[in-house]
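A further point concerns the way the authors explain their paired sequence and structure data. Since the whole study asks how a given chain folds, the encoding of that fold should be made plain. A single example would do more here than another paragraph of explanation. An entry of this sort, consisting of the sequence and the corresponding backbone structure tokens, reads as follows:

_____
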Amino acid sequence: MASSPVPSVAPVTPPSIHSLVTIKLSSENYLLWKAQIMPYLRGQRLFGYVDGSCLQPSQHIPNPEADKSPTAPRLLLNPEFSHWFDQDQIVLSILMSSLSESILAKVIGVTTSREVWCALEKMYSSHSRARLSTTRRQLSTVTKGGMSISDYFQTVKSLADTLAAIGHPLPDTEIVSYLLGGLDSSYDPIVTSIQTREDPIELEDIFGHLLTFELRLQQHTQVLEATIGSANVATRTDYSRGPHGKTQYSNRASSYSGSRGRAQQAPADTNWYPDTGSTNHLTNDLQNLNLHAETYAGSDQIQVGDGAEVFDYFKDEMGSFKASFCEDTRGMLYLYEASYLLVNGESNLELAREFTTKHLNENLEQDMEHNLAILVHHAMELPLHWRMLRLEARWFIDIYERRLHMNPVLLELAKLDFNIVQITHQNDLKYTTRYELPMFYCDITEHV
């Protein structure tokens, strides 16, 4: 087979390879190493020595003087071979210097750059196939577990980068699928939000959203732990304020959570006191509340003003609420809701309730902004302070979303908060029905 012509140029002295090829070949980075070494060899016009396009010429050529002189040698050293050999050894040296010790030991004994190149390709072709299968299996089974979002994201990203390095890059949509699939149920709200988006979202943006959601979960956990750790759990026989504004009374014989509470325990008191709202959040010593006046010799007192004089600004000379306020439907709605916080003897709030109830019903029969009309109708059915606020959250989220100038960030946070609480209660119910109270579950499901 005829050899291809070899350029008759002086041997090239390339720049230091260590300044251009920074990766040494190991068992994990063949494609990365190859991506650096190939441009270097091409730039020096040496790649033909490793891909086989620059064939090795014959080492000897016939001596044209052999027929003229019987003593002349019949073969001479081919100058093209000498040039090829010099260049090939330079390329061989470049390749050898870019190998790690473990890989270098596997190619000891080869004599040409082409042999080294082929040996490496053969070695890593089977290795890459095994690596592909292993990495895909790891991606399909990786879970967040106890890792932070940052560590979990880097784990998934590293596995995806490994696939790209062995020639099988994944699209971002598939990486996102693996990333979200390994999250636990506490991340269901953000997972659902991402999966239901119509417009595509970048991988780095998803990472940012997950970091924000993780921080929010941590804040909820810290608040819950602080509440459990510092609050004294009291057993009460009734609520502090009934639906008709009458003062109720509470049994102050308290039981404390000794296993989890970290606050200083106060002795149990079997006496009965009106529930004024003053609790151990103000002081953990009941003596400081001046509930027993005969045992307190100081002059300090806790006083609560009822603010009755404030209502005088909104009344006419006859002591009735001014008719001009009927035009402010939203203001009347706020006053209507506040009137349901009254206790016995608060005549101003009783008048406010009568006034607002009458005029809000009248305004409902007239033209009113749609969302405001929905709020008024909802309040007239049952005041907000008589409702369970958590159960009303979804309804108010829907109403707020329809507002013309609603804050999208506030809306998103409200939805996330609702979903977190919902999933928490769902998980609690699953745990209760599965492990603790199956009979109780049967009872409550009959009423759901």
Residues 18-129 form one domain. The longest strand covers residues 60-62.
